[in-house]
UniProtKB/TrEMBL annotation:
It holds the Pfam family Metallophos. Residues 28-120 form the Purple acid phosphatase N-terminal domain. SUPFAM superfamilies: Metallo-dependent phosphatases, Purple acid phosphatase, N-terminal domain. Coiled coil: none annotated. It catalyses: a phosphate monoester + H2O = an alcohol + phosphate. This is Purple acid phosphatase. Residues 1-20 form the signal peptide. Keywords: Hydrolase, Signal. It comes from Notothenia coriiceps. Belongs to the metallophosphoesterase superfamily. Purple acid phosphatase family.
Length: 205
């Protein structure tokens, strides 16, 4: 048996660092939900920097965790800024959800899973009165409503969020890094409740 020294392990990494081998970014980020418009469905969207499978594992809250799974697709997104940054946008649609039931899920692939989140499937009762949070103009700096929205969403106070334009200020700035940071910042809302949007004047080109 040859003892393995920490220094030897570190030295074996040096050539990789010197050669500048790029790291493999397969960790999901920017997780968000949307309603696809079909009863009993929910859309899950996220981003990875390298290509991976697109899988959501889920189950009823209080039941067996992740006893169901659904697959989707990833599309390559190339930012139009001068760096031409590339990332993969993953989309999975869950179907056959029980109305008003709460599900626990994570998304990603065997190369990396997100945190665990939960959502409630849309209620189909005739007496259902959905609760909306509706706003525009939410950016990365000085987002005065963010903490309240995070807490109230996680408390289950809203069925849908409507963000009616003007995101991040602006999504495309700094080769879209401002947009990426915004999407990470709102994950604590948008991974729990459908986050529906429309363009504002800052999104017009
Ligand atoms: Fe605005």
């Amino acid at each position: 048996m040859v003892p393995v020294h920490a220094a030897c392990v570190l030295m074996s990494l040096v050539p990789l660092l010197v050669l500048g081998v790029p790291p493999i970014w397969t960790q999901p980020e920017q997780v968000h939900l949307s309603y696809p418009g079909e009863p009993g469905s929910m859309g899950v969207t996220w981003t990875t920097l390298n290509k991976t499978e697109s899988v959501v594992e889920y189950g009823l809250m209080g039941g067996r965790l992740f006893d169901m799974s659904a697959k989707g697709d990833a599309t390559l997104f190339v930012d139009s800024g001068e760096e031409k940054r590339k990332m993969y946008i993953h989309r999975v649609t869950l179907t056959g959800l029980k109305p008003a039931a709460t599900y626990v899920y994570h998304c990603g692939s065997d190369e990396g899973w997100s945190d665990v989140f939960f959502f409630t499937a849309l209620n189909d009762s005739a007496s259902f009165s959905p609760r909306f949070a509706l706003y525009g103009d939410l950016g990365n700096e000085n987002p005065q409503s963010l903490a309240r929205l995070q807490k109230e969403t996680q408390l289950g106070m809203y069925d849908v969020i409507l963000h009616i334009g003007d995101f991040a200020y602006d999504m495309h700035e700094d080769n879209a890094r401002i947009g990426d940071e915004f999407m990470r910042q709102i994950q604590s809302i948008a991974a729990y409740v459908p986050y529906m949007t429309c363009p504002g004047n800052h999104e017009s080109t």
